User: Fold this.
Amino acid sequence: MTDLILTGASRGIGHALALALASSRDTRLLLVARDAGRLQALAADVERLGGQALAVPGDLGTLAGARELGARLAELVTPGATLVHNAGLWPSQRVLNADGLETAFVTNHLAPLVMQRPLLESGRLRRVLVVSAGLIIKGRFDAARTPTGEDFSSIRTYCDTKLCFALAMRDVATAHPEVDVVVLHPGVVRTDLGARPGPVGWLLSQVKRAWERPEVCAARLARILARERWSPPGDARWLLEEAEQPWPAVAQDAATRQALRDTTAQLLASR
Assistant:
């Protein structure tokens, strides 16, 4: 029996992926999201389908919440576990959290790093799959502005913060060659990510009707999870859906990668 940790499990791609994996008798799903009620209902659905699941409520909106969640997961999982980073936030306005940092920068970048740290340090993880976004090609990082959202954009901030975590996970792969790491664009999927009120929100909802269903994406992710290996030791490969592609140019920029590396280390050391 192996453990698979799935964040953002209560809705969208995460919810669909949990159900897609429910028939795997040799995997226990640890389902992570903020909504404990929805998680418990999902865990019950997984078990009705013959799987094993444990609801682990947790909040990636603050660094304290991420630390608490990571410590709990490190106690629950056995070595050889897979971690699927699926939780994400696409904000419509700039909001600072309790750490004084922009919420998407925390939820999409800093908090997942904090959450996974005790799992890596205790040798619990064998594989990490990051559900990223093709929109990282539009991302950028400004060390003085991005962490606090002074460069906030209702479109660009999602791209920026997804780029940040993708770059950070490349460093994680280098630092932990024993862990198989892959970062991917999952597809253009019809979920409530980025939903907003008003005419823009209505227009977006109409456009999304042509996008693929979460169940289609979940089947794709299940096939990727079934692969024996994703990346060479010490490296993290980039997939567009199921096909390996070269990393986008923005993810290869040495100055951006070093600026993010330094800023991330400074922020985590001071909080």
